[in-house]
Amino acid sequence: MRVLVTGGAGFIGSHVVDALVGAGHEVVALDSLNPAAHDGVPASLHPAADWRFRELGDPDAARAAVEGIDAVCHQASRVGLGVDFGDVRAYVADNDLATATLLWALHDAGFAGRFVLASSMVVYGEGAYRCAVHGSVRPGPRHRADLDAGRYEPPCPACGAPLTSGLVDEGAPTDPRNVYAATKLHQEHLAAAFGRQHDVPITALRYHNVYGPRMPRDTPYAGVASLFRSALESGRRPRVLEDGGQRRDFVHVTDVARANVAALTAPEPVDGPLNVASGQPCTVLDMARHLANAVDPALGPEVTGAYRLGDVRHVVASPERARLLLGFTAAVGPAAGLAAFATAPLRASVNGR
């Protein structure tokens, strides 16, 4: 199978390329080498792939990349919360407009194969919650006054009582709470519209917190695991926001790559979203402790009480649908995976650090 992997030189994309080549597929890899995440061409790129270093949003580059392909694995994206709202145009250009250009090129090419989209758990907003009185509820956005006062847990929107967090599944309503989340949901909507018109199955893999080797170092566009890892590498304590009690699911990048291959090659294609998660959630503070203990216990995390307004409190996934429909179960647990990540190589940032 000839597969186009967009964002193929990126953290997740490069692992997807490796997995596809290792499974015997022909890979065309397109990447813009955006300086927000890359300091030139990474040394880890698989030599068997057909590398194209061009912008996905360039119509000519998109048209050339989709020529003769059997499947698309769309990983290209500007990730993370960025610096502030001033990044909004870059996020919309890199995530929404580039996706629209890819779909436009596929439309012109008469594409009828499988399409796997790298989506994210951020489309859910807050995760699943229950109130002892009102049952399943959806908390609204958190307020500065509460966060300033150290009230991090969202209350019941009906009675204000404390809530219990649970597992969010793919049927949960979407509620993006920041620019990145809004662009990821729009990618899902654009791809779904293309799929309906062209009778193409669109598998949207909603990644949870991905970590592992080749994460970019020292950039606001990296995930929290990379930020903590970069701090430890520099001899600094990881700085944990809020009280560190935020619950997340940290899934290893090799498992994410396997999920992509499974979605592209399963006997029956899956049309719709799938959570890609380890199924073993932990708090952000516990994750920071795992990393620090593996590097230097004296560099234990610093709990700052600071916050980012676009963050949510708890997002923990149910991985059951991916297990049932793809046969996918994560192989790397957080304890072993984070211990190995503590000394795994990171990718140099644009300033070469």
Supply the key terms.
7-stranded parallel sheet; about 350 residues; 10 helices; alpha/beta; 3-stranded antiparallel sheet; 16 strands
What does this structure look like?
By secondary structure, this protein is α/β, with parallel strands linked by helices. 33% of the residues lie in helices and 17% in strands. The protein has 10 helices and 16 strands. The chain has helices spanning 11-22, 59-66, 88-109, 144-148, 179-198, 224-233, 253-265, 284-295, 320-326, 334-341, and strands at residues 2-6, 26-30, 50-52, 71-74, 114-120, 128-131, 135-137, 164-166, 202-207, 209-211, 239-240, 247-248, 250-252, 272-276, 282-283, 302-303. The radius of gyration is 20 Å and the shape is globular. The model has no long low-confidence stretch (mean pLDDT 93).
The gist of it:
The protein has 353 residues and is an alpha/beta fold. It is 33% helix and 17% strand. The protein is built from ten helices and 16 strands.
Largest sheet geometry: 7 strands, parallel
- Integer average pLDDT: 93
SSE ordering: EHEEHEHEEEHEHEEHEEEHEEHEHH
Residues in helix, % = 25-40%
Give a count of the beta strands, DSSP E runs of length 2 or more. Answer: 16
**Based on helices, strands and strand pairing, what is the structural class?**
alpha/beta
Q: Measured on Cα atoms, how large is the radius of gyration?
A: 20 Å
- Total of DSSP H or I helical runs spanning 4+ residues: 10
Shape: globular
Strand order of the largest sheet: 3-2-1-4-5-9-14
Secondary structure topology:
Blueprint: E1 2-6, H1 11-22, E2 26-30, E3 50-52, H2 59-66, E4 71-74, H3 88-109, E5 114-120, E6 128-131, E7 135-137, H4 144-148, E8 164-166, H5 179-198, E9 202-207, E10 209-211, H6 224-233, E11 239-240, E12 247-248, E13 250-252, H7 253-265, E14 272-276, E15 282-283, H8 284-295, E16 302-303, H9 320-326, H10 334-341
Parallel strand pairs: 1-2, 1-4, 2-3, 4-5, 5-9, 9-14, 10-13, 11-16
Antiparallel strand pairs: 6-7, 6-8, 12-15
Helix pairs in contact: 1-7, 2-3, 3-5, 6-8, 8-10
